[in-house]
Amino acid sequence: MRRILVTMLVLMCALAPGLCQEEELAALEAAAAESSAAPVEILCPAKEHGAVGDGETYDTVAIQAVIDECALHPEGGVVTFEEDSRYLSAQIIVKNGVRLRIPKTTTLLAGLKREDYPKNYEDWYFIVLSKCNACGIEGEGRVDGQGSLWASGGTAEQKIVKNWDDASCIMQKECRPHLIGIKESTLATLDGVELYDAVHWAVHIVHSETVAVNNCNIWGDQLIPNSGGIVIDGSRRVYLGGNIISTADNAITVKTTSASHGVEYLLVDGGILQSRSSAIQIGHESRAAFSSLVFQNISIEQSHRGIAVSLRDQGSMEGLQFTNITIESLFYERIWLGGAEPIHVTAMPRAVNVEIGTITDVRFQRVTCTSEAGMVVAGSMDSTIEGLVLEDVAIELVQQTDFAGGFLDYRPGMRGIVDDVQTSAIFIEFANHVNLSNVEVVWGKPPRPEWGQALEITPRTVHATSVTNLFVHDESAHPHGKEDHVGSTRSSMMAWVRKIEGNLRSSHKAFLGLEANAAAGVSGRRAASSASVIVIVLLGVVFMVFVVSGVVGHFDMRSKRHARAPDEPHFDKIAQA
Q1: d(CA 240, CA 426)
Q2: Residue 223 neighbours by CB under 8 Å, 6+ apart
Q3: Fewer C-beta neighbours within 10 Å, C or N terminus of the chain?
Q4: Average pLDDT taken over every residue of the chain
Q5: How far is CA 32 from the centre of its chain?
Q6: Which residue has the higher pLDDT, 20 or 83?
Q7: What's the CATH architecture for 47-164+173-249?
Q8: For 391, phi and psi rounded to 5 degrees?
Q9: 412's torsion region: left (phi>0), alpha (psi -120 to 50) or beta?
Q10: Mean of the pLDDT values across residues 60-87?
Q11: Residue-range domain boundaries for the chain
Q12: How many CB atoms lie within 10 A of CB 397?
């Protein structure tokens, strides 16, 4: 465990030098050398405490007993589970030095009853790593939130979800448990596991330091609101590597809900993200500072909003970097946050008389977008965005669905949605020192009626702007351009959603997958540049050199896949998209 976390920190410093000082890197390299010898593992089998694993009998007492006993060892230990088993349980609390190891064919099932969880809403997690050191969950097995059993009725776009009527829960529409919580913990890891069908957030990392989430597959029902992927709140030195996340709510959320806990030193390297809201959401709840956040080598698929940087409260943001990223954004119903923007950077008060911080130094480099709407950079009279760079960025606007466009979505916040506006490929207002360099805009075929300018700058609100090499190409003006495929992506996307629902209904025998051809009607998707591929390969080699313990490198996302049944859908194709 210590070796894995130290290796993670060394990689964070090596891949993103701004995250560490030279003396910190030297100390981490020394610690890595000291921990090169693998310690002898202490195994704590759950069956020795009476765990049944039949999927019907509650194994809570047995599992908690083996965790408590394993934690008594000075170096902790590994709680093991039988293969081909399903363990139903109420809340599980992981203690210092303890790791849960879930075999590939084994599932931990979250209890559904109110009495399965603690008194207060803030403690509603199925598995919680609370105030623990060197703890975690590993293996290739599944942690199943049974979220589909919470939902019934609704529409083709969003289901109705049952919530508990509990006085401890302020937001009634979110009164249901998270899947995994990492609270006030250090040296915590999630490695290789599948987090499946959560009814609320799959992973909540709050007020913790030195946390790694590697090679995890997170799959949720696409029609359950607030069922997000990974939420990072007020934590430092968090590393997400090679995760595949497909959820209704944001795939990755970064927030600071407490004025005393900021987010500092976050590295997200590799992975595939998909969301009906934002694939990456930074801010929205921003009461403390965000600094030194790096996102790189990421593919965003079929999301309502690609990358969202949303400042709405007092906390400020500084030093955000997005590199080697492909984004595909398209319209969903307006009940889901977003408006098909690949990049959305906004700073405006949540409400009247709300004090707001600032956004400074945000960089997008080597980013390729295919979208139905344009990029939005919008500060406000209360907070002007300072220092934004778009370098080697390409955006192709292509009509992919039959939803109406022609609006600006400023949500979340009091400005809401502004209708009846033209869609510009790049829209900028209330910003200073904006630098556009080597930016390409392609208008696809057929043209949408709301399409407007390639670059729109609101007069007298934007200052010190530099534009170098802005290329504009209009394929919609050429009769022999791309074929008309209005609505084709919409129909294939809905077929994909129905597949997801079918997989969820078929319980543990199904494995929720994305097909590479789920959006067969989408044209213009660009392959990753050869330079990006070389970088990924080289980083993979570095990672394998460090991680000699057998932990699979996060750059090889195809190497760890669950085999539930011969006829189940498989993930491999999406990694080739």
Answers
A1: 29
A2: 151, 154, 157, 158, 159, 248, 497, 501
A3: C
A4: 83
A5: 28
A6: 83
A7: 3 Solenoid (2.160)
A8: -130, 125
A9: beta
A10: 97
A11: 1-40, 47-164+173-249
A12: 28
